[in-house]
Design brief:
By secondary structure, the chain is of the alpha/beta class. The protein has helices spanning about 10-20, 45-55, 70-75, 95, 120-125, 160-180, 215-225, 290-300; strands spanning about 1-5, 25-30, 35, 40-45, 60, 80-85, 105, 130-135, 145-155, 230-235, 240-250, 260-265, 265-270, 275-285, 290. A seven-stranded mixed beta sheet has the order 5-2-1-6-7-8-9. Strands 10, 11, 12, 13, 14 and 15 form a six-stranded antiparallel beta sheet that branches. Strand 3 (about 35) and strand 4 form a beta hairpin. Helix 1 (about 10-20) packs parallel to helix 2 (about 45-55), helix 1 runs parallel beside helix 6 and helix 5 (about 120-125) packs antiparallel against helix 7 (about 215-225). It is elongated, with a radius of gyration of 22 Å. The N and C termini lie far apart (about 50 Å).
């Protein structure tokens, strides 16, 4: 088939790679505009752009897609269909209906669960034990179109959203391949709107840790909010990011957010409902990620210190 591909992150690049391996003609690749990143504001290409350039494909990065000119340029590729994988922008109807086969989306959840921009993150944050990939026919709604194929996978214990997204990227490429190979035989299935849940775009404030929550809830947020916005708190008004931790038994009755142990390699923080976490990896504002041992030796946090305070804006 002749395809126009639209995607941005590494998980989308897996699907683009698979389309080429399967022998499809990729007429063009759309991806988000280059943006500055890091302390030096160095311009960084998206993973999809990097792969497309290496494969000799035409790359387009429009700043606007809801214009007549953008729609005309898109239609001019005269493809059989569009494939959209985490492109990062809501497409107008003129794009969805530009080709005879419409547009097929690879979505990283088991629709109708977790419609929206961040399904992998919210599945982990909400304590789900299973997720998956869905291919669907795109319509004007937010992930509301008829589904084609689905495949479920377990969410592994301790798995964070970066690790899960990597697995789902490979799975998504496989499900997309099978979808296109059997497209004529697949009967689209309308979504059951009574089962809908949402995965809204993430904001910086989502990562702020509420220490009155249980250790399980906090650990889910540590795992689910990577790489953004991360799960964080404040120590002496400096942002303190928790990258890895584990739940432990708690025997004291200090207030949630209190450092109840800070000794050698053990940094333990009280949580709600008599629970606690032991932090394994963390990062104080202005410093690199480090082990609890290095943090204790360098920062020397006192037992009894209560974390929190500063509010992100």
């Amino acid at each position: 088939m002749k395809i126009v591909f639209m995607g941005t992150p590494a998980a989308a690049a897996r699907s683009l790679e698979r389309l080429i391996a399967d022998g499809h003609e990729v007429a063009a690749v759309y991806t988000q505009p280059d943006r500055p990143s890091g302390r030096g504001n160095k311009i960084v290409f998206s993973p999809v752009k990097e792969f497309a350039i290496a494969a000799g494909l035409r790359v387009l990065q429009p700043t606007k897609v809801k214009t007549a000119e953008a729609a005309e340029e898109f239609r001019a590729f005269n493809a059989d269909l569009a494939i959209v994988v985490a492109y990062g922008r809501i497409l107008p109807a003129s794009f969805l209906t530009a080709f005879s086969g419409g547009a097929i989306n690879v979505h990283f959840s088991l629709l109708p669960k977790y419609r929206g921009a961040a399904p992998v993150n919210w599945a982990i944050v909400n304590g789900e034990t299973e997720t998956g990939v869905t291919t669907m026919i795109m319509d004007a709604g937010l992930d509301t179109g008829p589904t084609l194929l689905q495949e479920a996978v377990p969410i592994n214990a301790g798995e964070n959203s970066i690790e899960l997204m990597d697995r789902l990227g490979h799975l998504g490429a496989d499900v997309l391949s099978r979808t296109l190979a059997n497209l004529d035989a697949i009967v689209p299935k309308e979504q059951d709107n009574s089962l809908v849940s949402f995965a809204p775009i993430l904001s910086k404030n989502d990562g702020s840790i509420d220490w009155t929550s249980t250790s399980k809830t906090i650990l889910n947020r540590v795992r689910g909010f990577q790489p953004f916005p991360t799960a964080y708190t404040f120590l002496d008004r400096k942002r303190l990011t928790i990258w890895d931790a584990e739940a432990i038994d708690r025997v004291d009755h200090d207030a949630p957010g209190t450092i109840i142990e800070s000794l050698r390699e053990s940094l333990v923080i009280a949580c709600g409902d008599g629970t606690a976490i032991r932090v394994d990896e963390l990062q104080i504002e202005g410093k690199r990620r480090m082990s609890a041992r290095d943090f204790i030796n360098g920062v020397r946090p006192d037992r009894g210190t209560v974390l929190g305070g500063r509010i992100e804006v």
